[in-house]
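User: Predict the structure for this protein chain, please.
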Amino acid sequence: MKKLAVILIIGSVSLFAQWSEQNSGIGFTIFSLSAVDDNIVWASTSFNNVLRTTNGGAVWENVGASIPEPNGFQPCIFAIDANTAIVSCYDGYPVIHAYVYKTTNAGINWTLVFTQGDDAYISGIWIKPNNEGFMVGWPVGGRWSLWRTTNAGNNWDSTGLYIPEIDPAVWSFENSIFYSGNRIWFGARQRGIYYSSDNGTNWVLQDVTWTGYAYPSAIWFEDPNHGYSSADRNIIRTESSGMNWTITPNSSGPEIIKGITGVGNNWWYVRFLSNKIYYTTNDGDTWIVQYTAPTNSGYNHITKGRTGGNKLWAARIDGGISVYNGVLGNQPVSAIIPNEFSLSQNYPNPFNPQTKIKFDVPEASFTRLVICDLLGREVTILVNEQLKPGTYEADWDGTYFSSGVYFYRIIMDDFSETKKMVLMK
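Assistant: Here is the predicted structure, written as structure tokens:
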């Protein structure tokens, strides 16, 4: 006879909006955000303004005062830890010069680690935990400005990194870079997405011109295969490292995409000059507006902690910073492994507009939890991933759905079940 498992609920998975505003202390455009985890975040703005928080944004401090002249505008930043960050700057007219500074003492001092002339502009920086890093800038002298580091940005070398480009209308976008393992992606206006599987030695151009005008202005990957980017001002998704991209439905808009981030089925993006944050719970099959900023100023970037966590940050052109304090992925809410698969009745039921759905996974299983209408059509996917053993709780927000009867169905490797619920507004 099976023993009864005692289930202790110690948390829940929240899939509805939990956005709030933070005080950055400035009124300038924030160009770039870089989050290490839920506490450590750096941001770059104009001139010698670099923001840093070590407590999740409860307090932001300006640590860029000692950046040497010329400091110009700072289009991108990469945070390594609470004390170490690298920021790119550009200055000069009519010929732009690029500068890259690094601090190892929380901004008390900044050291020049890179400079380049001839209309140079560094748009993306990424440092991996092993101190290997990559930097991309606009084409200079008939080739893309590509640089590699093996010591966390203290020195940069372009040896063996070559992509030709002579068209001055082709350039890269701020923050449109992602580096994981040996794989690198960066977006190129009019061209597509350049991809390397060997740390930048060889490159393949992933064509996104079939979507219209190639505008890959944002990139984020959850793992080496599953990622998101932008094309002709719409959102595209890949399950093959970008060798094949598909357009997500209803994601086109009038302004360029300025940032994408997410995990599992839950993804967010922002548009330039738009004060809205867009959100999907079903891996891009549908998008909704999850949050509208209290000012009319548009968002300029959005990101999450690289080492995990549950917070997001989105920055605007008026210096505003929005923070999301929800839960980004599905995590067990019980310390006890259940004895059998099960799907509980949602609670409350009827509900308005939010309800909880609890289910048990006794062994590792690919799990899919979907919401269907009366005709059996899927309207939302809450879970669609491999789960480890545990008890889970998913929340469904019916704010954007009509009153009526809905069904929720769970499909696992050795179990499936369907139950009914009522949304009553």
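The radius of gyration is 23 Å.
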